[in-house]
Structure formats: C-alpha cells, structure tokens
Amino acid sequence: MIDSIRGQSLLTLEGLSARALVEILDTAESFVEVQSRSVKKVPALKGHVVASLFFEESTRTRLSFETAAKRLSADVLSLAVASSSVKKGESLRDTISTIDALGIDAVVMRHSSSGAALQVSRYVPHVRVINAGDGQHQHPTQGLLDAFTVRQILGERHGTSGQESGSELFKGLHVLIVGDVRHSRVARSDIQAYTALGAQVQIAAPGTLLPPDMTGWPVTLAEDFSEALEWADVVALLRLQRERGSGSFVPSLAEFTSSFGLTIERARRLRPETIIMHPGPMNRGVEIDSRVADLPAAVIARQVSNGVPVRMAALYLSVAGLKRDGAL
Fold it and tell me: Where are the domains of the chain?
C-alpha cells in the first residue's frame, strides 16, 4: 500500500492506503480557508509550471484544476486540443515531449483512453502526472472530492473538523452508487476511496450497465433498489455516459429512469440525513429528478466547490515534493 503521494504522480486511488487518503483530505481542509480570502492565493507552488492537457471536453474538472494551480501561485500552460497539433495527427508522446521542452513540473491530463495518464508518466518520469480522468479507468480527484465532501458534512454534524476525525467518520458508513457503473471512472475511484476509508458500498444498476467481471470489486450488488435507498447514508448517482455508448445498453432513457432514476417518489424513502451526490453534469429527469437535485440533501454544488481545495491538495503534495531541497 502507498502511504503518501508526496512527490509522486496521482494516477489512481488503487493501492493508496487510508493514511494516504487522509493526508490528502487533511491538506485539502487546510486549503478551504484560502477560498474565503480577499486574495485567494498562497505561494506554495510559486515558480512551478503546471500544464493542463484536456483531450476530452470538460468544464468542471478543467476549470477546477486550473483554478487550483493558480491559487497555489503556479504558472499554468493550457493546451487547446481543438487547435493543437493533435488534430494534425501528432502522437501523444510527441505532444508531451513538446510540452515538456517548455519546462514543466506537472501535467494535469484528461484523455479518452484508459491508461493514458500512466503512459505519459512513463514518457516523462521527471514530471508529476495528475490523472483528471482516463477513459473508463479512473478519476482519482473526483473520488477524493466526493469523500472530502462527505467527511466535511459528517464532521459538521458531529461538531468536529475533518482533520480531527481522520477516517473515523467513514467507519460503517453505507454508500450506494447508482447508475452506469460499467462506463464510469468516477464509480471506480469512489469505490476505492470509500472502501479504503472504511465505508460499505453497494451498487445498483441494470445488468447491462454493470461491469462484465466484478471479481475483486469490494462491493455488494443491491438486490432491491428501494431497500438499498433506505439502507444508504450516501446516495451517489452516476451520469448515463452517452458519449461512451451507454444509451445502447438500456432500452430507453424512460425505462432507465423508471427502474433506477432517483425520482421524487423514491427520494421519499431516504432518511432526512441521507446525502445525495452527483459528479455532474447531471441529466435532469434521467438519473435524477430535477426536484430531487434541488433538495437541501443534494450537495452537488458543494462537490464542485470542494473540487478546488482537493485539487490544490493533490497538486501541492505531488509537485512540492519536487523542490530541490526536498522540503515541503
């Protein structure tokens, strides 16, 4: 198990210990205060260069990472893939070599191919690579910010800070992940984060939207969706990934909603304290009723807001370890 990402690339949550996850969450907690300052900056990564390479369209994740880097005082290079040499057939390796020649310390990368971030880390081993989502494989900072949001809310209810609670608030927590698990990198990262921290995870989905082989997955399959909703402390909904062909795995969107959508009727089965989450962008009226998305129990906007301090923490721990003197 890996006990810290200090000075390391963040490619996956697989293999990270609870100690490593708590270190990231605690560091993020220390950066939350920066968001309330009149000048929202700290000099933690001053003089470092972070390249933002998004080969897939993104709004929340790209803006969140670039905001995080700038708040750490890093210089940010943002590649506009639509107008870059990638469109002329340049290979990923050559693109990375070109960016590296400009003198970078880290690459934040999203790519449609699973394993792309790992490949880049092998091309430029002296550069830290932060995986912002690779195919159906992993989205580690989404898993971290989801866990951070849950810990933050539970800490507020218990009157403790996240740093005081460590991973204790996750012990015995019931998390239900619902929807397109088959195509979801968010589901994979969430499962690894929650289970490593001590939570129990169930998944609910049509059989066609389950992974072909779940051997080794530390989850149980919900036999009855309605009962699972009553069991859950956290309900994490997943977007139907139509760009990955998920629409062809269900007879119709209406049928998916009828069977596995969080409708207003199903939401009434939830306990008042149950947390409703969604990584965005939402398909309102498909996996989540618009009225449910606007309930106080839905913390979707809070997830977006927490993306900045969590990504600040990931960048800081990963990149600051590259300082010449080795000190943070």
Answer: 18-138+307-320, 140-304
